[in-house]
Each structure stands twice: as structure tokens, then as C-alpha cells.
Amino acid sequence: MMLKRMKAGSIRWQIAASAIAPVILVALLLILTQPLTLYQPESLSYGRGTALKIEMVTEQVRAAETPEQLAALFAIVSNTGLKVEEVSPAEFGNDPNLSISRTDPRQLVRNNLPDPILTSFRTDTSTGKLHNVIVVAVGDGRALAFQPSPPPTASWITEKQINLALKVMIVIVPILLVSLYAASTITAPLLKFAAAAETLKPDEGPDRPFDENGAAEIHTLAKSLNDMRSRVRSMIEDRTRMLRAISHDFRTPLTRLRLRAERSNQPELKASFLADIAALSDMIDDTLIYLSKEMGAEKLLNADLPSLLDTVCADFTDMGYNVHYSGPERFAYRCKPRWLARAVTNLVENSTKFAQQVTVTLSVLEDRSVRISVKDDGPGLPADLHTRVLEPFFKVDTARTSSDRTGFGLGLSIVDDIVRAHGGKTELMNASPHGLIVHIDLPVEDATSVVSPPQLASNASRATA
């Protein structure tokens, strides 16, 4: 699991971890395999140092010739933290009521004194000046009582351990910095590629948007992406050109057919001809709209959505359809109103083909995002087709009882492109007990929420697939 997470993590940290992990492992091995004497407790060094002082003092006491020299020596030694006084040899001997632990400072001192030196422990001296002393025989019937200072508190880390840690850091920090620099030289171009891909328009912008500089691998990747982009643009242009040409060439025979139908003396045949010609013309118009790039030219405006939706509903009402608007009376939203109206018009037009009543609802959510819902009372759609109907040229007339007005399968695809261009999403769901609801969810009002024109032309590749 940890290895899987590491592989899914940032390249920068993967390189740093790969470079530093061996160094840390070697450092830990060095620490664990060092002899134990390298980290001796502070109490051991304390015991040795105090024992050396006692040996030195006993030698100087033997060499002292006058009481003044002896007093001066005791004063100097006491200033170092080791209190001392001369006591009667009678005090040489262990106090019968005294119990000495292994961690007692006097025990630590005696463990470091040479064997020939005689010592004993006492609680107090006869003068009462010193307590918890160690009595040392000097010779010639003399004895000295020493009161050692408490040993220093043991620290959780020794000075030698600190020095070793610093040495390890001297190795790790440069490796970390070099690793991060090396990783950044790899990740920085990749992040630039990702940013460029987010805003890439197959049919707009420079021919080669990815910078072909840097390391050999980055150069190869950038060149491959630029070549792929060129091939995609060429494919889109070829298919768009073909569809435009076909749509254009269709209009000439349709015009001739319309003129011939107008001269027909058979009313029923004339009406059938004109209906078929109108259907073909609508299909051509839908195709041209689907391939249009005009949306990019429309500017963002603060439009009154209720007025926009009410106007769409009124247009269908004037044509005799039962379409009405429900929602707030005023709400300004920054969008491309002409194209947003086109999306709602397509949804309402699609609903009027299969339903008797259509309701367009505007809802402003708590986070100020917007939902436009188009609900009808038609037969609805199977759940597995709710996403497929958004694909170009996909028709499901068999799922909804269609009238004689059939489309070309582009209406909902155009809606989805327009909504995505506004940073929103389109969702279809069945109503209860029957009918279809199409939700258009638009993000919180923000100029950045409306992206560059939907790649309607780019979807030609899907249309002809």
C-alpha cells in the first residue's frame, strides 16, 4: 500500500526519497553498530572525574607541611564542588544504619578509586558540616571526608550523538536540495504541459503550443504533443470542411425541390414535399450550428435570466404549445445570453415533440449557483440512455413517442456544448409518474466560470465517428 501511494505521489518527492533513503539507512546502521562505549552515561564520567580529584587531594594533603597550606587546599577543592574536611580516623568505618544504592554518587566514586585506597561511607561527620560523605584513608593515622556534588542529570541525547546527527545532516541536506532541484527540472515542464493542455483549443491558438526546450525526454514529449495537436487540428479541419461542403451542396437541390413542390397541383403531395424539405433544411441548419464558432465572438453580459427564459417560453406559447416559466422575477447572471437562450430553446423544442406540457424552472441555490430545469410530461427516457442522448447524431425516437417532426440528433449535443462552455453540466432524469427533466447546472457567477467557446467544431470528430 505504501509503495502504491509513493508511485502515485509527486515525482519531486519520489526522487528526493529515493536519494535520501539510502543515506538515512546507512546512518542508522552506523549508529546501531557503534560500540557501546561511544555513548557512556554521564554518571560514569562523573565518577571517574571525582575519583581523580580525591586521589589528587590525598596526595597534596600528604605533601602539605603547615595547617595554612591544608586550609588553602580544602578551600580550593571545595570551590570545585567537592567539599572536604579532615576527620578523625575513628570515623573511618561504615555507618551501621547506612544503606548505599548503586546509583549513590559515593558508590560511583568508590568504584573508580584504586583498590589500595581505603574508603568507607558515613551519614554525617563529627563536626556536622558535611553529610553523606565518603571517608578516605590518607595514611599516618589521618582521614579525609569528601562530600561529592550530585552527578549531572542524564540527557536523552549525548554530545557525540549530536555530532553524529550533524554529520548526517551535512550529507542529507545537500542531497535533498539537489534532488528537489533535479525533480523540479522534470516536474516544471510537465506542469506547464498540463496547464497548456487545460486551455488548449484544437482549432485555435498557435500551431505548436508546447515548448520544445529542456531535457531530451521533455523535448521528445513536447514534440510528440505538438505533432499530435497538429494531426488533430488537420483532422478536424478536414471533417469540418467536408461537412460544410456537404451541407452547402444540399441547399441547391433542396431549393429546386421546393420550387417544384410549390408548382404542384396536388395539395397533399405538395404539403408532404414541403414538410420533408423543411426537415432537411432544419437538419442542415443544426449541422451548421453545431460546427459554428460564432459563440466565441459573443461577449459575456449580465443578463436577466428570468426575462430570457420567459421570452423563450412566450415564443413557444405563441406557436400554440403549452410552455410556461416558473421562478424568480429578476436575477442577473453573467453569461452569453444568445447562446444560453439557444440551449433552452433546443430543450423546449425537444420536449414539445413528445409532450403536451413543458415547464421551464429557474432556481438560485444557496451558494449562488444556478439551475435551469426543463420538465415535460412525455414518456421519458430509459436510464441507460440519459448520457447517450447528449452524443451527436444519436436519436431515440423509439423510446419517446415521436411526432412527425424528427430532428437530426444534434439538439441535445448543442445544449451540452453550450452548457459546458459556461462551466456547467447537463443532467437528465425521469420525472414521476412520467416525463423527462433536464437540469442545466451553472456555476457561481464569475467571469472565469465561462470558458472559451465550446469546441463545437472539434466535436465533428465525434460526429463522423
Word description of this protein:
By secondary structure, the protein is α+β, with helices and mostly antiparallel strands. Helices cover 49% and strands 14% of the residues. The protein contains twelve helices and eleven strands. A five-stranded mixed beta sheet has the order 6-8-9-11-10. A four-stranded antiparallel beta sheet has the order 1-4-3-2. Strand 10 (425-430) and strand 11 (436-442) form a beta hairpin. It is rod-shaped and about 155 Å long.
Concise overview:
With 465 residues, the protein is an alpha+beta fold. It has helices spanning 2-8, 11-33, 42-63, 67-79, 105-110, 159-198, 216-262, 267-290, 305-318, 337-352, 411-421, 460-463; strands at 83-87, 119-124, 131-139, 142-147, 301-304, 322-326, 332-335, 357-364, 370-376, 425-430, 436-442.
Rg, Å, rounded: 47 Å
Number of strands: 11
Indicate the low-confidence ranges by residue numbers. 36-41, 398-405, 447-465
Order of adjacent strands in the largest pleated sheet:
6-8-9-11-10
> Helix and strand succession?
HHHHEHEEEHHHEHEEHEEHEEH
- Average pLDDT rating: 78
Overall SS class = alpha+beta
> Number of helical runs?
12
Approximate helicity band? 40-55%
Beta-strand level of the residues, as a percent range?
5-15%
Q: Overall 3D geometry? A: rod-shaped
How far apart the termini lie comes to 41 Å
Largest sheet: 5 strands, mixed
